[in-house]
Task: structure prediction
Amino acid sequence: MAIQINGNGTITGISVGGLPDGIVDTDMIANSAVTTAKSSGLGTSTRTLGSEITLSNQTTVDFTGFSSSLTRFDIQLNGLSCSNNTQWGIKIGTGSSPDNSGYVVCTGFLGDTDHGNRTNNAAGFYTNGIGTASYATTGIFRFFKVTSQSNKWHCKADFQVDNADNHYFFINGYKNLSGTLDIIQVLPIAGTFDSGYMRLVTYSD
Result:
């Protein structure tokens, strides 16, 4: 069939795959015209930015309802502080319950004249050296699934404290879960979160 341009602007006579290479380039594709389903073979990643949570008198902040395709997530922090002189951190889990043991974690800080570290903090991805109620923490926790063949999650966190701006605080470690991750819990060891903001960002590859 011959290719024909019709009076209404349509084109007939073209079969699937009938256009030569180079006929259609990116300039000819309308904005937002390529859907996620159509780009599945391109190795794209979906990023979901969660709502900002105001911290005020929470004993925990729980995140649930994840897709099984979750491969990475971040917890972004701005000015987080606690009501007590306490450390705080993150636990992850499966079966709708955070695990309370089995974490392999190194956490500590570096300063201009001092430093501190603690290895094998098995109870969670907890801070070290921030146990003062007047401290406000800004930074990020980054988690990623090490391999699709297991439920091993690695954590790397970096943050600063407003009242100790000459110090760098860090957390590094991993946790093997017995099943698919379905809960993330942020919590102080004692007391509550009394100010600041928090947001979850998830990625599915």
